[in-house]
Hints:
Largest sheet: 7 strands, mixed
Strand content: 15-25%
CATH topology of the largest domain: FAD/NAD(P)-binding domain
CATH architecture of the largest domain: 3-Layer(bba) Sandwich
Amino acid sequence: MPTKQLLIIGAGPYGLAVAGYARHLGIDFAILGKPMEFWRHCMPKGMFLRSGSTWHLDALGVNTFERFLEAKNLDPEQVNPIPVGLFVEYVDWFVEKTGLETVPSYVRRLERHDDGFEAFLDSGETMTAKNVVAAPGLNFFRNLPADLIGRLPSGRFTHSCVTVNFEPLRGMRCLIIGGRQSAFEWAALMTEAGVAEVHLAYRHDTPQFVNSDWTWVEPLMQLTVEVHGWFRKLPATERELIEKRFWSEDHLKLEPWLAPRISEPQIKLWPKRSVETCKLSPRGSLIARLTGGATLEVDHILLATGYHVNLPQVPYLSKTTILPDLKAHGGFPTLDEDFQTSVPGLFLTGLVATKDFGPFYGFVRGCPSAATIIGNSIQSQLS
């Protein structure tokens, strides 16, 4: 197979955004993966997004979510909050409008050679490219705290991203460990699906049910495109202020539309609690003892413990030709002003870029700017 100028690994929002802009620039590329697979299979039906209608994938600002709504004769207020299924439908529309074709294969191993990269696919094929953009999915970074799961009976807990079909839990009693948006939304959806009892245990105060304000992010995203590397060049104190404000909007608030759904009698909140012990009972149920002395009898435990970037967990990155030269700090890659790693020609985007580019890149809002910066950098190298 001829060598491509660019190989994009991952067909989620960030990979597709880069592909759309690369197509506009005339870069010869291939994109590997199944479009929006994580969103389709690891997010439950009935889930809503926290973003507004202005967030989209198109670096050119043409095939936006709002343009998609216009095509469907929908007003943004009609779809506020945005159903996850509607956003996936938008991405399918974006793929069609931009003429993208993905190779529905997974990369089993990515190797670096003197003249570029070689990807070994699960289909048995190989692909070579001068440059690679990888957008590792959240699935690689499930946060399963060792100290917590060490206290839980094997086989009786799951992470929230693999627990999106609640029918098998109908009539059961469940304990959710975690107290942010996803934990509360899963609790509402599980109760509505017929789960008998849902307990939420978390180590902090209950977040407030108030609207998050993301308007302050917009000028910062524009600044990211206009002034390369501005975030990474900020003094540590200023970066921390931005990160704290983002944390406040994302973690210390719950969307108001969740409040009435959480007030159901089947849902019990246990703030400032954690699991001390968890044992199997003679009946086969789980007896969980919480800090403070409360004891719960449940049938299943759900870990709404989020995600934690740890680059070596990305299984396709070669342990001999890539990882030894891939500089990282705290599990995050060290990136230059163009999202390029310390391995020349290898770019990383999405959640893995948040350390050097800001917390916005854990959300769809960062897609257009990341695509613009990466695409322009690769084009300048090729010209």
